[in-house]
Amino acid sequence: MLTDSFDRDVTGVRVSLTDRCNFDCVYCHNEGLGDTRGPAAPRDHEMGADDVVRFLEVATEFDVEAVKFTGGEPMLREDLAEIVARTPDELSVSMTTNGTFLPGRAEALVDAGLDRVNISQDALDRETFAQVTQSGAYDAVLEGVGAALDAGLDPVKLNVVVFERTAGYVPEMVEHVAANPGLRLQLIEYMPELTGNPEWAIDMARVHDWLAERAVAVANREMHDRTRYWIAPDDGDERGGEDQVPITRDSVDDESPPIDDASLGLVEIVDPVENPTFCANCHRVRVTHDGFLKGCLNRTDDLRSMGEMTNSEIREAFREVVANRVPFYGEYMVRTDEGGWEVNDEYVEPRASVD
Ligand SMILES: Nc1nc2c(ncn2[C@@H]2O[C@H](COP(=O)(O)OP(=O)(O)OP(=O)(O)O)[C@@H](O)[C@H]2O)c(=O)[nH]1
Ligand SMILES: C[S@@+](CC[C@H](N)C(=O)[O-])C[C@H]1O[C@@H](n2cnc3c(N)ncnc32)[C@H](O)[C@@H]1O
Ligand code: SF4
Ligand code: SF4
To answer: Is 294 labeled as ligand-binding?
Structure first.
C-alpha cells in the first residue's frame, strides 16, 4: 500500500468517467474539473474502457481496496457496465450518480459487479429539486432509487448538498431514510471553493447538533473522520438523549451500528470545508475523465497525465502523485493571523528571476 508523507494510506481511487452531464446543478463542482455543460455525445478526450481498466489493474498492485466511478454523470457512458465488469475483483465498486439512468440499467450493473451506489437527491420536493438541478427529472430520480434497491445495491446512499435552498428539507430527508431500510443519507456541506457563492453555505455545526439530539448512536468513520448518526424512525418513541451510545472516535470503516438495531437509519455528514481533520484522514486519489491523476479535489496544480504511458510508467506516476499528496486544509492552506486561509509558502512556486 502506498502512504503519503502525512501518513495517509491510499485505499481508494475515484475515477471520473466523463465531464458531461444531463443536469446542470447550480452548485456543481464537477469534482474539480469545470463546467459539465456541453454536448451529451461521447468526446474524444474521455479515457477509453481499456485505459480505465489498465489504471485499475495498476491500482490493485498497490493494494487499493475500492473504486468509485463518478463524473459528470457516469451513466452517460454506454460502456459503464463493461468497465464495471472488467474492474479487477479485488476492488469493491461503487458509483455516484444522479440516478436518472438507473431504471432499466441497475440490474445489469449489479450483474457486472457494482456493489453499491450513491444517488444525488437534494430534496423531497419536485419544485426545489427542479430549481437546484435545473432539470425536470424528479420522477426519474425517484424511479432510479427504486431500481437501485430492487437490483440489490446495498447500501443506497442518498446525497444531499446542504445549502440555503435545501437546508429546510434536511429533517424530512432524515425521516425518509430512517423509515426506509436500505437507504442511507449523506449530508454534504456545500463546497464553495471551486464554485463561488460562499453565501449559500450554512453552518454545518447546527446540523451536527440537531442530529446529535435525535440520534440513538453516534460514531466516526475512518474515512475523513466523518461523523455518523443512527436515527430511529419518528414513531413517537423518544430514543435519543440519555439512551444515546457515546461517540467512539476509534471506530474503523465499520458499516454496522455501534448498537445492533437494523431498524435504524444511518446519516453521515460530509463536511470538508476548512476542515483539517477531514483532510488529515483523506485516503483517496482521483483520476480525471481525460486520464490525469489528481491528488486532491481542491487542487489542479498536482495533475499528472497517464496518456500514452506504459504500465510501469503509470506505476511510477501513481507513486509520484501519492508522494506529492498533502492535506489541503491545515497543510497546503494554512490559517492567516486574521483567521482566513492562505497558500502555505512551501507550496508557492518561486518566481523566475528576471535578470
Ligand atoms: N473536499 C473533499 N470532498 C469530498 C471528498 N470525498 C467526497 N467529498 C464530497 O462529497 C461528495 C459526495 O461524494 P460521493 O461521491 O457520494 O462519495 P463519498 O461519500 O465520498 O464516498 P462513499 O461514502 O465511500 O460512497 C463529493 O462530490 C464531494 O463534494 C474528498 O476527499 N474531499
Ligand atoms: C459532481 S457529482 C458527480 C456524480 C453525479 N453526477 C451526481 O450528481 O451524483 C458528485 C457529487 O458531488 C456533489 N457536489 C457537486 N458540487 C458540489 C459542491 N459545490 N459542494 C458539495 N457537493 C457537491 C453532488 O451533489 C454529488 O453528490
Ligand atoms: S448531476 Fe452531478 S455532475 Fe451533473 S450537474 Fe449535478 S452534481 Fe454536477
Ligand atoms: S486533502 Fe483534498 S481531497 Fe482530501 S479531503 Fe482534503 S480537500 Fe478533499
So the answer is: no
- How big is the chain by its Cα radius of gyration, in Å? 20
- ipTM score: 0.98
CA distance 65 to 51: 19
Residue 107's pLDDT is what?
98
Cβ–ligand 3 distance for 106 under 6 Å, the answer no
Does any ligand 3 atom lie closer than 6 A to the CB of residue 129? no
Q: Kindly report, residue by residue over 232-244, the tens digit of the pLDDT.
A: 987 655 555 555 6
* Burial letters 303-318, b for 16+ CB under 10 A, else e: bbebeebeeeebeebb
Nearest alpha carbon, ligand 1 atom 20: 270
Residues 191-201 have a mean pLDDT of 93
Q: How far apart are CA 153 and CA 134, in angstroms?
A: 27
To the question of whether residue 43 is assigned a binding role by annotation, the answer is no
Cell triple for 242: 440519555
Q: Which residue has the higher pLDDT, 33 or 56?
A: 56
Which listed ligand is nearest to 71 at the C-alpha?
A: 2
C-beta of 282 in contact with ligand 1 (< 6 A)? yes
Please say whether the beta carbons of 180 and 146 come within 8 A. no
pTM of the model: 0.93
The helix-helix angle for 204-214 and 170-179 (nearest 10°) equals 40
**CA gap 155, 153 in Å, rounded:** 6
Atom number, ligand 4, closest to the C-alpha of residue 281 = 5
